[in-house]
Amino acid sequence: xxxxxxxxxxxxxxxxxxxxxxxxxxxxxxxxxxxxxxxxxxxxxxxxxxxxxxxxxxxxxxxxxxxxxxxxxxxxxxxxxxxxxxxxxxxxxxxxxxxxxxxxxxxxxxxxxxxxxxxxxxxxxxxxxxxxxxxxxxxxxxxxxxxxxxxxxxxxxxxxxxxxxxxxxxxxxxxxxxxxxxxxxxxxxxxxxxxxxxxxxxxxxxxxxxxxxxxxxxxxxxxxxxxxxxxxxxxxxxxxxxxxxxxxxxxxxxxxxxxxxxxxxxxxxxxxxxxxxxxxxxxxxxxxxxxxxxxxxxxxxxxxxxxxxxxxxxxxxxxxxxxxxxxxxxxxxxxxxxxxxxxxxxxxxxxxxxxxxxxxxxxxxxxxxxxxxxxxxxxxxxxxxxxxxxxxxxxxxxxxxxxxxxxxxxxxxxxxxxxxxxxxxxxxxxxxxxxxxxxxxxxxxxxxxxxxxxxxxxxxxxxxxxxxxxxxx
Length: 473
Fold this sequence. Notes:
Helix content is 51%, strand content 17%. With 473 residues, the protein is α+β, with helices and mostly antiparallel strands. The strands form three sheets. Strands 1, 2, 4, 7, 9, 12 and 13 form a seven-stranded antiparallel β-sheet that branches. The protein has a four-stranded antiparallel β-sheet with strand order 3-8-5-6, with no helix packed on it. A two-stranded antiparallel sheet has the order 10-11. Helix 6 packs antiparallel against helix 8 and helix 8 packs antiparallel against helix 9.
């Protein structure tokens, strides 16, 4: 490789990094600067009702605010299944100062359903303070509303007529977001990383001019040297998959759609899955799982299946699992087309943040390659690994929220799911696509760690054992 070409590659790498930093800041939006608050107050389970809230009666609930920005309040009323009329006032007070108020029409208040009050301008500056939620009305007797309450909780009080305090908690929730301090230094941090990247590439270029090669130049030279071979292996794998198939590559569209249709009929009808836009939720999971399973299955046989070629000609052995992963990635790209179509058909708005799914897909690809290299190395020495992997992958499939949501898992078992990398990949892809917002910053770091650790471990095992491959093939 001549120096001019290497210089262009390095300059392009820096430009791409800078473009990524800018576009990521735009796409991530407010999720980069704030996150769902850990101090959100959840609604308690009701077991009683308050006195009727009529003119002259107030219900108050003290609570400690541990939220930087209060964005939403939820309340649960009951009308005892009769008509009600009048105005119901909801206020939040700091001492005697009203910091938020809203008015509800008692006629339109639903029976024992949550009413969500969205705060247009988030309430800020009250984190760590004790606030009071107050509900009053101008309703007349036998024509008012009641609050759903929990009398088992002795930590708070609600106020009945005549300011008589009784133990209990009204059914309410307060939610919002917390500021992420690190976001204030996003561009300075990215600027430092850009300088470090530029310095490393500049030193690498100078060393190459002196005839010295490091891991970066060796990797680039390897890709250039074996580019033709990799492309031929990818082409062979891709073509062999659809060999003598009438529909050919169309199966990349149909396979996830047919799988999604069957699972949709089962889980939305028989098991009553009520996830919003469930076909999109399900298809995203099916596509990602199919890619992971196909990649690992193909990588597992990538060395043992090419024994004749490896024993006759010297070829870097990592090329075989790499080619299989690239081949599966092409199928993954094709499978995204029906996902987009189903998303549009279901009326889910595709927002700019949906582009962030490519970050998590890239992490999924790297993670799958790492697992594949590990399995490929084991397969050479232990042929039973292909049968063991078929069982383990089946367990992993059911341990991953593909056709069900993580919310149905009992709290004491959720830690198992959180240690599953596929849970993070799928969850973040669905969040970007279905909700049109970016996950919290730590989600990107978690997925990157899963990907890098998997690749590093898989490559380490592969490299340590590859010299013995020819003895066992």
